[in-house]
């Protein structure tokens, strides 16, 4: 009887063991961040932890977020250093400040009877047989050009004023295509010296058209200056071809890469026909000019 009882107990124990479900084995157990592992290395998926996976730290790294470094002041000023005649160039807030004396670094008949005549006076030797010397002479000033550091297209485009609309790399101001409000340069152009500049009645020397001294000495496809809206001005050729007004928009420019701006930028071109430097107003929002 006891023997039969022991047999029944053994059978019951065996039946119970076979009925239990075996716990599955995780093949990734102990492998950090493996598929199927719910733990992020260095972080937490626990909603009560205050961190999401995006807050997690890479193992072995610094948990301080990496910030993109802004270009140094020297790097941002580099392009403007091409204005070689500037007495000072510096950043002021969102603007570049450029200071020049406005005197051309080339010879001119308009240096006659000035304190610089012995060094810089030269009779007209250009190819305009209608040239006539106007009664004005070259003076020296304290010009300040304040132009946007990061120029953008304007929402409302402004007309260029009479007077300085930009600065050439030799510190001489650019003027627009008018001798007076809405008056073309038809007659005034005959008073331009051999380098295509002349002074006003107040002795302000300036260029309305291609500054021949710069295109002859620096090249016809190079950076020649900036307008007051901060956009650069280039010479009359591009990629070995002469630029025409038909290649440009109504403001006398277009957008693509240049040697100075490999990521591309809107820029003006000087051409041989009206409007010469700038068309129907500034493309961007102009800064200021003072003297």
Show the helix and strand layout:
Blueprint: H1 2-19, H2 73-77, E1 88-92, E2 95-100, H3 117-120, E3 143-148, E4 166-168, E5 173-174, E6 178-180, E7 183-184, E8 197-199, E9 205-207, H4 212-217, E10 223-227, E11 232-234, E12 237-238, E13 241-242, E14 253-256, E15 265-269, E16 288-290
Parallel strand pairs: 11-15
Antiparallel strand pairs: 1-2, 2-3, 3-16, 4-5, 4-10, 6-7, 8-9, 10-11, 12-13, 14-15
Structural description of this entry:
With 291 residues, this protein is of the alpha+beta class. It is built from four helices and 16 strands. It has a six-stranded mixed sheet, with no helix packed on it. The radius of gyration is 37 Å and the shape is globular. The chain starts with a helix and ends with a strand.
